[in-house]
Amino acid sequence: MASRKSRPERRQEPLSRERIVAAAVELLDTVGEGGLTFRALAERLATGPGAIYWHVTGKTELLLAAMDAVIAPTLAGDDTGATPQDAIRALALGVFDAIDAHPWVGTTLARLPRTPGKSPMLRVFERIGRQVQALRVPETAQFTAASALLSYILGVAGQNAANTLAARANTDRAAFLDAVAAAWRELDPDQYPFTRDVAGQLREHDDRAEFLAGIDLILAGITAGRADGRTRP
Amino acid sequence: MASRKSRPERRQEPLSRERIVAAAVELLDTVGEGGLTFRALAERLATGPGAIYWHVTGKTELLLAAMDAVIAPTLAGDDTGATPQDAIRALALGVFDAIDAHPWVGTTLARLPRTPGKSPMLRVFERIGRQVQALRVPETAQFTAASALLSYILGVAGQNAANTLAARANTDRAAFLDAVAAAWRELDPDQYPFTRDVAGQLREHDDRAEFLAGIDLILAGITAGRADGRTRP
DNA sequence: ACCTGAACACCGTTCAAGT
DNA sequence: ACCTGAACACCGTTCAAGT
Predict the structure, then answer these.
(1) How many CA atoms lie within 13 A of A194 on its CB side?
(2) Cα angle at A74 between A69 and A79, to 5 degrees?
(3) Which of A12, A48, A120, A139 could form a disulfide with A67 if both were Cys (CB 3.0 to 4.6 A apart)?
(4) Per residue in A205-223, pLDDT tens?
(5) With DSSP H G I counted as helix, E B as strand and the rest as coil, what are the percentages for chain A, rounded to 5?
């Protein structure tokens, strides 16, 4: 239809919000949160740092846009057909995997200032909420249930991202977990009896499975006592 | 017993880790995370920035120490006498209140690199874990249960801290919640039906009560199906 | 042993000047 | 309208030099 240059020359592509955000994600994935710099970004886009400010108001907006670019695609799936529980599990795993692949999302989430209502996490909240409604949770309890699920997801995301980054800084994940387990076992038995007890479980533990088990715990709490009857007749 | 100057002259007090950490907490409380600067800290302590490095290895260690100074006192309480559920609620509320009073703790938590095993949150994990054991959770499920509770607490803490900071930046909390609710109500009904539905509940909602309700949800999940009998006989 | 403060190698952001 | 890049006002951290 429309005419197209057969060889688009990379250097002359005009700057745009999308190109900037894409470059930011790439930079964040490659060199981490500390590597996202207006100077580095400008160099990658073959301009000066000032040019970026024409398309983006500042670093905060850039980070929000980068997060959204990573999170939004994981919510593209269709929930029809699955049970609400399974839809929530799938949703949660999608966010988990996205943050596992882009740890900077997890560590950035907590730090960003809340513009009223507009956050990449609102998409997740909405999707969870719809499934909570499908679970037939009473209206007054829906907000609590959806918030609890989202908070848990964000909490794990942050922890897991921090661990991923720490593991990356050291050698690999297995070695890192071993180091943590070893450190736990050397704790003062009077002060840390429980932590020492469970240190052994750290080695063969699967972050993803553990995450899902926590989701199931909350789901069980949400639906507790209204399945086949109440505990007190 | 030992002789003591009656008027300790403030200016000559020697520098020490404790004084540095105390000044850091004060600075963080007063001017926020962005306000903690080695230069500002040095000025408050009447020295040069270099002096601080003699007592502290860098900014990360300083932040960890500041967090620990705020969190550790909230765990001083004694759990004997209370039910495990109540002990966990008290513990969780202590952390919640500490982070509510010092929002920078919540936003800092996720970002800090994990030194193997040594984190201010390990204290919380240990305390939760002991109560999970007291709940008679099977050994293989203890780690999952304690982790889920901790992750939820951290997730809420981060969210709440971000909200507190956003509210502080705007006018007050009530006005901020109103602004969020208004923004939610203006969302596209096709894309955000649930969020629009619950926007009304945001106004009379109590963060602390909501937090506790989430804890109870997880506790219910942890103890589900083993109180007065199983759902399937 | 502990402190000082200038200096180094960076930041985010702004803004006159260009096209 | 959009881009350039020097300049401003900062950072964390280091380190020779002092006491």
Answers:
(1) 23
(2) 140
(3) A120
(4) 899 999 999 999 999 999 9
(5) 70, 0, 30
Q: Map tokens 């069980």 to a residue.
A: A220
Judge whether residue A104 contacts strand C, using its CB and a 7 Å cut-off. no
Q: Amino acid identity of A65?
A: A
- Residue B4, pLDDT > 50, answer no
Q: How far apart are CA A157 and CA A154, in angstroms?
A: 5
Q: Is B165 exposed, middle or buried (0-12, 13-18, 19+ CB in 10 A)?
A: buried
Residues 6+ apart with CB under 8 A from B132: A194, B84, B88, B142, B145, B146, B149, B222
pTM: 0.88
R_g of chain B, CA atoms, integer Å: 22
- A134 CA to centre of own chain: 24
Nearest to B73 by CA among B56, B42, B97: B97
Q: How far A47 CA sits from the closest chain B CA (Å)?
A: 29
Which residue bears the tokens 């969302």? Answer: B187
Tokens of B95: 């952390």
CA distance A213 to chain B (A): 7
pLDDT tens-digit map of B191-232: 999 999 999 888 888 999 999 999 999 999 999 866 433 333
**Contact criterion met (CB < 8 Å) for A216 and B213:** no
Mean pLDDT of A149-156: 95
Chain A residue nearest residue B106, CA to CA: A110
Which residue from B minimizes the CA distance to A125? B195
Q: Quickly list H helices, B74-232.
A: 84-101, 103-109, 120-134, 139-169, 173-185, 193-198, 207-223
Distance from C-alpha of B119 to C-alpha of A190, rounded to nearest angstrom: 18
Classified as helix, coil or strand, A123 is: helix
Cβ-based neighbours of B163, under 8 Å, separated by 6 or more:
A114, B176, B207
Mutation site for A-interface testing, chosen from B198, B205, B207 by largest number of A Cβ within 10 Å? B198
Query: Among A116, A130, A214, whose Cβ lies nearest the Cβ of B148?
Result: A214
* Cβ-based neighbour number of residue A101 at 10 Å: 12
